[in-house]
Structures are given as structure tokens and as C-alpha cells.
Amino acid sequence: NAGVTQTPKFQVLKTGQSMTLQCAQDMNHNSMYWYRQDPGMGLRLIYYSASEGTTDKGEVPNGYNVSRLNKREFSLRLESAAPSQTSVYFCASSEVGVTEAFFGQGTRLTVV
Amino acid sequence: RKEVEQDPGPFNVPEGATVAFNCTYSNSASQSFFWYRQDCRKEPKLLMSVYSSGNEDGRFTAQLNRASQYISLLIRDSKLSDSATYLCVVNSDLNSGYALNFGKGTSLLVTP
Q1: Per-residue pLDDT averaged across A46-69, rounded?
Q2: How confident is the model at residue B32, as a pLDDT?
Q3: Which DSSP letter does residue A59 get?
Q4: To probe the interface with B, which of A23, A44, A98 has the most B CB atoms within 10 Å?
Q5: Is A93 helix (H, G, I), strand (E, B) or coil?
Q6: B43, B46, B103: residue with CB nearest A105
Q7: How far apart are alpha carbons B50 and B94 in whole angstroms?
Q8: Can you give B15-79 as a three-state secondary structure string?
């Protein structure tokens, strides 16, 4: 059972470069999320998608865009990476109404 | 002020000890409460949901006090394998749905 799959697992970017983090889930969940985790800050919500075709901003959306490509896939794009975006990024999915959320293994991103 | 507050620890306890973690939340409208466990450099995983009547799962007991907006987790007979970060999680009502709002986590180290 794959669950939630994120790619890539590691990435180093130069300031100003762009990249897309990919996320796919095979549990037929409606809701998908992107979080970032920084030391001392905990997990903070970047964007979420309550259902296919909808996306909304979370707590820290600046510098990011998202696309809910279909029910399975939810991608996160950094258009112009900044050192402040160095973090661990987690994608998650859940059924409607906030039941248990399942997380991908994370993407460790360093922007230099 | 963060919506979910936890003591970051670290809590260093010997094997066999009983340890308790506390968490407070600010949104009185929150309906769902969870404890997640996160191992070093891994994704968060659900440990247990927290119900109004309190619930127990083996050595783990979770309690919810809605009047005080307070959640607790008790671990009895601590094992070395319990060493991890424990995340208090509360649902957040967002524009088009819900998402999980994470505390910063409490670090537990169980020593021989």
C-alpha cells in the first residue's frame, strides 16, 4: 500500500530557481494538504485542497502555488526559491471532515 | 499566539516510568483532537484520537477537557521505543474545509 507518495525526497536549489514538489495519494481521499516543518516552529499549513478543483491558503502561503491536478495529485510549486523556504515539506491527505491524516515521507529542501 | 500550545520538553525519563504531556488549544469550536507521533526525520503518524470521554490504547491514555481547552497524553511503563516527538493536533475550521493544526511537539527520550 503506497498511501501518500512525495517526490523528490531531497532537493537543493539555488536562490531564484523554481521547482515543483509532487504528491499523490491512492486512498481516494478528498482532502489534501501541504505543510512545512521548521525547527522550533512545528508543522505549518501552506495550502490545502478540500476537494478536487478547490484550493485555499493556509497559514504560510506566500511564495508558493498549488495545483490540484485531479483527486489523486496535489502539487506545490516554488516559483522563485528563497533561503527562507529551506524546510521539510510534507504532503498529507484525509477523508472529508478531518479524520486521520496520512503523510508522505517528506521532501527535504535546501535553498542556497 | 499559536492555536495549539505544548511544552517542547525534552522529557528524559527512565524505562518503566510514567510520563504525561499536556496541550492547550485556543479555538473553542474545535471538534477533533489527536495525538500524533513523529520519529526523527520521519513523517508524523497518528498515535490516537482523543474523545470527550477519554480513551485508552494499551499503555497510552488520552484525556480531553473541553471546558479548560486542554488535552493530555499519559504513557505508562515507558519503553525505549517510545522515544519520539509527540504532536498535539486540533482541527481548524478553514474557508472551504478543515485542516489539522499542529502543536510544536513535545520531545520524549526514554533511557535505559
Answers
A1: 93
A2: 87
A3: S
A4: A98
A5: strand
A6: B43
A7: 21
A8: CCCCEEEEEEECCCCCCCEEEEEECCCCCCEEEEECCCCCEEECCEEEEEECCCCEEEEEECCCC
